[in-house]
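Review this today:
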Amino acid sequence: MKIIRFLDDAGAVRFGTNWTADDAEILEGVDYNWIRSGRRASITKLLAPVDPRCIIGIGLNYRKHAEEGVGNGPFATPEYPVVFFKSPGAIQNPNDPIILPRYLPSDCVDYECELAIVIGKACKNATIETALDYVAGFTCANDVSARDWQIKKGGSQWSRGKTFDTFAPLGPCLVTPDDIDADSVEIRTVLNDETMQQWTTSDMIFSTREIIAFLSGSTTLLPGTVILTGTPHGVGMAQSPPRYLQAGDVVHIEIDGIGRLTNPVLEEEINHTPMIA
């Protein structure tokens, strides 16, 4: 089943399915246990398909991306998943803008198309065999990253460069595990009209099941946890010359079987001197 999260004409947040451009069938229930109501509601705004409790990122999870490297050449293939965190405040809706930071400024804001896992029920010590039992669904994500703050200025920690407001667009919908083979789908970034990334999740070093099993080891993943599973080769930082996001760009993240996540790019408006010139 495909599921959207939206505002209705009364301003209430709803989950829905079987939608048109104007309305959707309402899903009822809590904690990702939904049933179809048979009733419909108007869609006034499409929201990110989850309001996350936590956002966990996996780095260097595509073989070609690790080979692509940057600067000093290829990255070593990791023995275990490389883990970082993004703030839930970084979430952004489909069609709403990615904001280039100007108060704490960055001129190196990059795109990363990613498959996102949404955990639907509390998950601890999952096995490879049981991992998908905890998944509410999959969606498209853009792990937007300020490379200067991620690599040069972040004190060797990635989170500062990845957790600015609007740096985690998600959408347009959630697809339940029974409707998609998430470990074998094509994933793309289209920047304006140019395809920048185009690859398959079958190149992931750690599969979706392996990621869930690893992250849940002696650790509870709460319902609403979003896991970003890594990006393929073709990021802007690795282009020659680098191609970072600019105001006026439009970024599309596409995953076969899920859909297209679109976000324009704008600059942050500030009324005072930037923190760092």
Summary: The longest strand covers residues 33-42.
